Amino acid sequence: MSHATYNKVWTDAQEALNILLQREREDKSLKPEQDRVTTFKTLATSYIKYVQIFRNLETAYDQIVHPQKRLVIRQVLEGVMGRILELKNDMVTLENSEYHYFDDILQDLKLPPEHIEIPIPRYFIKEKLKALQEREKFLTQILFHAGLQTQKPVKSMAFEEAIKTIQVAERARQGRLRATFMKQIYLEEKRERQAKLQGRTGPNPDDAATCIQKIWRGYIQCKKTEKIGEEEMIFLGMCPPPHFQTASTSLLHAREVNALRGEVQERHEEEYQKALVYIKDRLKEIEGLDIKETLQDQIRQCFIECRHIVGKFSDYPTEEAGGSTATFSQKTPEQVAAELAAKEEAALQKKSKKGKKEKEEKGKEKKKGEKKQKTEKKVKGEEEGWKMAPSNFLSIMEEGSSQYKAIWKNRDEGWNFPQERDPELIKEEKREEVEEEIRVQVDELMRQELKNLKLVVDKEKSDEQKKGKKSEKKKGKTRKKNSRTDKDLTPNRTIDSLYKELAEQGLLIRAKTVNLSDYVGEYSYLGTALRQVDVEPMPSLSDVRQLIALYGILPLGSQAVHEKAPLVKAMLLAGPAGVGKKMLVHAICTETGANLFDLSASNIAGKYPGKNGLQMMLHMVFKVAKLLQPSVLWIGDTEKTFYKKVPKAEKEMDPKRLQKILPKFLKALKAEDRVLLVGTTERPFDADLRPFCKVYQKIILIPRPDYASRFVLWKHIILQNGGILTKSLNISCLAKLSDGFTQGHILQAVQTVLSERRILQMTKKPLRAVEFMTSLARQDPVYKEEEETFKAWYAKTPLGKARIKALAESEEAGKEKGKGKAKGKKEASKDKKKK
Predict the structure, then answer these.
(1) pLDDT at residue 379, rounded to an integer
(2) Which of 307-321, 586-600, 642-656, 712-726 has the lowest average pLDDT?
């Protein structure tokens, strides 16, 4: 597509965003909403619209080649991502559930479920691709030298042996061809001999022609009927079109254009960075002296006017206060004098405040009692109504929108067809930077000039001479680091040496290249209908994929989003074996370019023994994870770390090593540290629930796939493993019969059937559903009892308890309303009888 097309996509996204921002400003002034259903609908509608804007902005940022436009889009894009995470957090607190269903809202907005799929921004990987490739090479070298990764040996072959192999293959091929040719000759001669022996004459030519016509016409009619049936099935959407699997030429051409756009983006970005330096230097050369002189004249004039009004020269502001920027250049002398007087009064007030500190400490105990009352009031307020929480990203989005309106909305770009940098905009931006740099130099000169004026005119000593040795005696109090987690236990070691040691110890591992889109699953269309009947639906695989994108990928991929969005430090993936928990961990690393650390109980057993060794291990892991962020810390079979009772067979392994120390290190993580702890478990009910839920603030329950997801999975896995989908293969039958089986079971069944020999036979012998049943029947499915145990365990978690409590309260409220209506009807009937 052209530049104009993607500019139009950006314009449409900005207009939709402006409407949403206007609505959010209006919502602030509204009263709290009492009805939870309407509140959820407003939140969900805003969430869906922000997701649509996010999709358009991501496309525009990925394809627009103008470097200055991309800076504005990037700012708005990060603001929209953060706002989506805030709205998701609000919906979770409102509904007490991680999973939400928007069937009715999508129907009202006339949108398909694909439009609320969270896209993964491509710039997460694209902008640091070279660094990731270098890191991958470094890790490969470390693993190879440590003997943890072996390269496949390449068999060498002598030249004469290679010729003999080729000759044998060629002679065999010629022999096979000759054998088929001789067989045909032999069959023809045999027919001729049989005809001579029987002595039969051939049939009448007319009868033979009629017979041939009859058979041919029947064959043609059958083909026509089959074709009509196929066209009807394709029209109804029950069969894919004939060229559905093959990529069209237009798609291939679009991919080539996208690749070229990426190259143009890189080239324009390099030119833009060079232009920033060049234009700044030119501005210093041409306009630097004039700016310096005008600033000095302004400040001198201000000196004179201040002395004329106040009677003496005022003090020059320090560098921390902003120098002449905040005072002289933009304010009148009267304002300057008033500010200086206010500062003197503030200094006197500070002294009087010191005596009040003791009184404040006494009043703290009273405040504790008031806090309890406030919390009770908050609960009552929630019952009375709900109001949208303040956002950290609205100001970012508004700033980006204002830049778009001021600069790009009505800008004439007829001269800039290749969409290169705009030098006028760079001049405006860099002129301010040059002024600031020159202002710092001018401040130093004018500060010295003011000292000289004070000595000569007012005969005052400088502040430094007055203070004398007093300033030397003052020493800043240094805070002691109380916790051991704050100490740097490896101050003299480089990050490369720590990285190498962790890789050699097997704590830093290579993540498999898996995209989140490979986690295939269909959207659940019955969620809202079931919740309206007070039945909690099982989430679909599409819902799980959305949560991984929201809690794992978006915050780790963007520093600005991670710092201001609701902080998620740890996430638990719980579900039966084979549902794709490890795959999702690797997908998070692949989509964000994160390092993967394996802290599973089985992996750290015997490594860094003792308390000091464990402290050192976690210190190294968290230090490398922070410095080379984003990073993912993975604990497989995490229930072992929080065992209720350690089994005898695992006591030597000491699986509970991390239970006490891990929360301390997690607590030390700050908003600027893009580090995520991800735990996976097949048996969460074996763990002690309280410490388990304290560590993992987000718990995602992954179910076995439903019918729609299984239908999509069978197709995807068969095609991925080299299979061909034909009419003889009934996918719907496979999806029904595989109820209770997970993605891992289906993958194993497909890989067992589709061997190399079977793939070669596929053209003559198409696949049938029966072939997969034997390998599937050998595996144990996930029974309903196991699924119920997972549901019962999840109901004991904090969010599960809150959900049950909220449902119980809503039921009680409904009963009370029903009783009130019944009483009203009875009283009305009594009044009628009296009349």
Answers:
(1) 43
(2) 307-321
| Nearest residue to 543 (alpha-carbon basis) of 782, 705, 747 | 705
Mean pLDDT of 254-275: 85
CB-CB contact of 47 with 18 (8 Å): no
Spatial separation of the C-alpha atoms in residues 539 and 290, rounded to whole Å:
67
What pLDDT does residue 112 have?
Answer: 87
- One-character DSSP codes across 496-522: HHHHHHHHHTTSEEPPP---GGGS--P
Is residue 681 classed as helix, strand or coil in its secondary structure? Answer: strand
In which band, very low, low, confident or very high, does the pLDDT at 827 lie, cut at 50, 70 and 90? low
CA distance 471 to 484: 34
- Give me the amino acid identity at 318: T
CA 676 to chain centre: 12
Query: Where is 698: in which H helix or E strand?
Result: strand 698-701
Please give the sequence-ordered ranges of beta strands (E in DSSP) within 113-160, or none if there are none.
none
Q: Is residue 73 within 8 Å of residue 92, measured between CB atoms?
A: no
- Tally of CB atoms within 10 A around 754: 20
Peptide bond into 630 cis (omega under 30): yes
The answer for residues whose C-beta is within 8 angstroms of residue 364's C-beta and 6 or more apart is: none
- In order, the DSSP letters of 625-657 are HHHT-SEEEEEETGGGTTBSS--GGGTTT-TTT
555 contact partners, CB below 8 Å, separation of at least 6? 85, 561, 562, 565, 568, 674, 676
Instruction: Decide if 551 contacts 660 (C-beta within 8 A).
Output: no
| Residue-level pLDDT at 832 | 56
Tokens of 343: 């500062």
One-letter-per-residue 3-state SS of 520-536: CCCCCCCHHHHHHCCCC
Q: How far apart are CA 214 and CA 216, in angstroms?
A: 6
What are the pLDDT digits (tens) for 122-171? Answer: 989 888 888 888 888 888 888 888 777 655 555 678 889 999 999 999 99
- What is residue 485's DSSP assignment? G
pLDDT at 315 over 80: no
Closest CA to 710 of 776, 796, 786, 620: 776
- Which CA distances in Å does 656 have to 407, 581, 637, 647, 777? 59, 22, 12, 11, 37
Alpha-carbon dihedral sign for residues 485, 487, 492, 494? positive
Residue length, the chain? 835
Q: Which residues pair with 509 in a beta bridge?
A: 596
Q: How many helices (H) and strands (E) does the chain have?
A: 32, 6
Mapped to the 3 state alphabet, what secondary structure does 376-391 carry?
Answer: HHHHHHHHHCECCCCC
Q: Which of 450-454, 703-707, 786-790, 824-828 has the lowest mean pLDDT?
A: 824-828
Least confidently predicted of 244-248, 359-363, 396-400:
359-363
CB 59 within 8 A of CB 539: no
CA distance 592 to 121: 9
What average pLDDT does the segment 643-656 reach? 84
Q: What angle do CA 190, 191, 192 make, to 5 degrees?
A: 90
Number of other residues whose CB lies within 10 A of the CB of residue 800: 20
What contacts 58, CB < 8 A, 6 or more positions away? 77, 119, 121, 122
